[in-house]
Design goal:
The chain is mainly α. It has 18 helices and no strands. The two termini are 29 Å apart.
Length: 378
């Protein structure tokens, strides 16, 4: 029991740090966009580069997790979390920023696959649902990151200063976790399998659900602050609260997600989550009040919170595919939506408006509802 508890703390800490780095970045997108004078379309293309970096890393990380152990791969990738903040903060040109975003995508995508594989190992050994609570820690970290951006913007701390100090804190905590956490199992029997694989037929429906959920999450993460500035006419500091509210709502629901799944079952939980997401999306699209939009963001966070944990847990326990390969394949088609969706939003916003582009949210919620049965193994 003590060993499981220690492993839980180590994995949860990695989720917190990874979420914090993303929350810091996502909440300062308006500042980064202003610094480089980016149009919505240009920002969308920049996010596409981030997506490409992640897609390349998904399967490579999954193979590495099988071969060297998910814990080892997670810890090695985590070191670069602090580096990427420095690269983004001090990128002197759009070209250097573009390279930084490719690297950011690779780090984020690679670590996401590895730490979810590690989390699945701890969940199996504990013999109880833990994946939702791990993702709650990611949301907690994202909320901390977004909160730090809110304070920095409110008190006129410039983006390079915030990112540099944050990078130092992230590095120190990461080194401490690495020095105290253990190893995880290797699975070398799949060494001859292809590096890049699409989901098996048993996982295709899971990947579609994950794609819809993560695309929705990416829309709020990368465009939520800009949406608030454009629609609710708030300051950059107040706009950072949007992702903070979204992340806190996700964290809150994920902390009790395991109990909800145990009570209602996987399919019913996913369908209820889709309905809540639909309601939140409708509020965001209907009202222009800052308070109402924040409430909508919160409801979307509540709804989406359990979907990705359910998808990764289902993939990790597939009987036909190795853990690392299964998670990587679902991530490639599914979680890739977290990174591929925002560029699409940018292109739509450039052609029409940011508000029009958010119409995609209720559509995605309907698709999650329709495909939710694939998240269950029964």
């Amino acid at each position: 029991m003590t060993m499981i508890r220690n492993r839980y703390i180590a994995v949860a800490s990695m989720f917190v740090l990874n979420g914090a780095v993303f929350g810091i970045w996502a909440s300062r997108i308006p500042a980064i966009s202003d610094k480089h004078n980016l149009s919505p379309a240009a920002l969308g293309l920049l996010l596409l580069l981030m997506a490409l970096g992640a897609v390349v890393a998904f399967s490579l990380s999954g193979r590495a997790a099988d071969h060297y152990g998910a814990a080892t791969v997670t810890k090695h990738i985590a070191i670069f979390n602090s580096v990427i903040l420095i690269l983004i903060a001090f990128a002197p040109s759009i070209w250097m920023l573009s390279i930084s975003m490719i690297i950011f995508g690779a780090i984020s995508g690679g670590m996401d696959v590895a730490m979810n594989a590690w989390a699945a190992e701890v969940e199996r050994k504990a013999q109880r649902p833990l994946m939702s609570s791990f993702h709650a820690m990611w949301s907690f970290g994202a909320g901390i990151g977004a909160g730090s951006s809110f304070l920095s913007a409110t008190y006129d701390v410039n983006m390079p200063t915030q990112f540099t100090s944050s990078a130092f804190v992230v590095l120190i905590i990461t080194l401490f976790i690495i020095s105290t956490s253990g190893q995880s199992k290797h699975n070398k029997k799949h060494n001859n399998a292809p590096i890049y694989v699409l989901p098996e037929s048993s996982l295709l429906g899971v990947a579609i659900v994950a794609f819809c959920a993560s695309l929705s999450e990416g829309v709020i993460a990368d465009w939520g602050a800009i949406f608030l500035i454009a629609v609710a006419h708030v300051s950059e500091g107040d706009a950072a609260l949007g992702y903070a509210v979204f992340s806190i709502a996700m964290m809150t629901m994920r902390l009790i997600g395991g109990q909800i799944v145990h009570q209602f079952g996987v399919t019913k939980t996913a369908r209820l989550a889709a309905l809540i997401t639909m309601i939140g999306s409708s509020i965001v699209l209907t009202f222009t009040s800052f308070a109402y939009i924040l409430a909508g963001f919160g409801l979307i966070g509540l709804g989406l919170s359990v979907i990705i944990p359910l998808a990764f847990s289902r993939a990790a326990n597939d009987k036909n595919v190795s853990q690392g390969a299964a998670i990587a394949s679902v991530a490639t088609l599914g979680y890739g939506g977290f990174l591929l969706g925002p560029p699409l939003i940018g292109l739509i916003a450039d052609i029409s408006s940011i508000r029009t582009s958010f119409l995609i949210l209720p559509v995605l919620a309907v698709l999650i509802f329709a495909f939710s049965r694939y998240l269950s193994t029964k």
